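Case study 2.
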Amino acid sequence: NACTRNRCANRCSACPPHANCSAFNTSLETLFVQRGHWRASPISDKLAKCRKLGGDDDAGKVRCAGGDNTEANGKGLCNPAFKGPECQLCSADDHYLVDGHKCEKCD
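Prediction:
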């Protein structure tokens, strides 16, 4: 079974749901977050499903790209066009979220 290494206790913990811990010596900081999910920081083991927000069933997967680069505030898990919790905000300040998965320029 895959697990994550706790850097303080140097022990294995179960891999969080919606993460992939199959890489050798995976730590909480390096675990791979599946597409359509997000976490707030590299030391969080709580993964949130990215909701539809008015879009179709794949809207959360479009915004939340997943990966192993969480960065501060989960930014590294977002499609580059999005930012914020669950990648709900458009990266461009003059854009807004439409249909849960795309950004349009404000008039």
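The helical segments are 59-63.
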